Every structure is written in C-alpha cells, then in structure tokens.
Amino acid sequence: MKKAIYPGSFDPVTKGHLDVIERSSRLVDELVVGVLNNSAKNALFSVLERVTMLKELTAHFPNVTVDAFDGLLVDYAKRIGAVIIVRGLRAVTDFEYELQIAQTNHEIDTDIETIFLTTRLEYAYLSSTIVKEVASYGGDISHFVPHQMIARIYAKYGIEGFDQ
Ligand code: PNS
Q1: CA distance 134 to 55
Q2: Using CA atoms, how far apart are residues 87 and 33, in angstroms rounded to an integer?
Q3: Tens of pLDDT along 147-160?
Q4: How far is CA 131 from the centre of its chain?
Q5: Ranges of the chain whose pLDDT falls below 70
C-alpha cells in the first residue's frame, strides 16, 4: 500500500491543484490532500473552509481524502504512514524553492520521498495568488478555479450575484 500526501495551502484550490490531485491519485493507493494549518498566514479561506471545499471537489476520487495538518510536513506524513510527498512544478521559477523544501524534508526523514508532477501547460501560469488578485478586481476567474468555487471566492471580496 503506497500512501502519498499532496500538501499545500490551497487558498483557494485551483484547477491546477485538482489536476495534480487527479493525476497523482492514479499513481498511488491512497492520496491524502494535506491543508497546511498556518495561522500566521493571511488567508482568504479558513482551514476548515478549505478542507470542506476540497472534500467536496474530490468526493468522486475513491482513494483521495482531505485533512488539515500543522507542524512539520514530514512529521505529519510519518504519523499517517505516507511515504511519498507530491508537489506540482509549474515552471523553472518553482524549482529552486521546491528543491530546497524537498531536500530539507529528505534530510529530516530519508524514508519519505518527494515526487514532482509537471503541471499541464494550460495551468502553468496559474497560482492561488493570481486567482485572488484577479478576483479582488471582479475579473473572470472561471478558467482558473472549479465552477463551484467562483461565487465563494467573489463573496470573500464582497462581490455578489455570480451564478455557481
Ligand atoms: O501551497 P504551498 O503554500 O506552496 O505549500 C507549502 C507547504 C505546505 C508544502 C510547505 O509550506 C510545508 O510543508 N509547510 C509545513 C512546514 C514544513 O514542513 N516545511 C518544510 C521544511 S522547510
């Protein structure tokens, strides 16, 4: 049984995240989407909201579960029996940061490996930060996030009246 964790902030979850979830869930027996519970971050959605939305959006994947974690990722992975960390790589700009985290995690726990999925080209530019920037000005985010998320994101900026 190979169990993997796909960690992140998911604030908010994007189509790029969902693509990585779908593709990595096919590579392992069980995939846990781990939402970082980081109170220091100025988040748009609470951790509970993010977990709830991710559960909704991944309900059709039989081997995917969603959970929140705090503390070190490798400690959480160990606790739940995950031996693989999944991360998405969009562009070369992600590489240095991701390499540093992966190598640090491996230094802390050599039993846990990080694997990277290159994101689909159509999502290569996409990030939660970009979604928030566009949404905050009332721009069209329908290409960036699942349709169930659109009204919820706009609502955070006080923009109402969008159909789900
Ligand atoms: O979606 P993000 O914000 O790029 O995800 C970053 C995340 C959650 C993978 C990373 O910040 C993390 O693992 N944080 C938990 C603390 C930790 O273990 N850091 C890595 C060792 S430096």
Answers
A1: 25
A2: 11
A3: 999 999 999 999 98
A4: 14
A5: 40-41, 162-164
Helix, strand or coil, per DSSP, at residue 128: helix
Q: Hey, what are 155's tokens? A: 């609502």
The Cα–Cα gap between 45 and 43 comes to 6
Residue type (1 letter), 33: V
Helices (H), the chain: 15-25, 47-57, 73-80, 92-108, 128-136, 147-156
Taking the C-alpha atoms of residue 5 and residue 7, their distance in angstroms, rounded to an integer, is 6
Mutate to test the pocket of ligand 1, among 13, 36, 38, 76 (most ligand atoms within 8 A of CB): 36
Q: What tokens were used for 61?
A: 């994947």
Whether 6 contacts 31, CB under 8 Å: yes
Range list of H helices, 47-143: 47-57, 73-80, 92-108, 128-136
Q: Is the pTM of this model over 0.90?
A: yes
37 lines ligand 1 (CB under 6 A): no
Residues 10, 128: Cα–Cα separation, whole Å: 7
User: Rg of the Cα trace of the chain?
Assistant: 16
73 ligand 1 Cβ < 6 A: yes
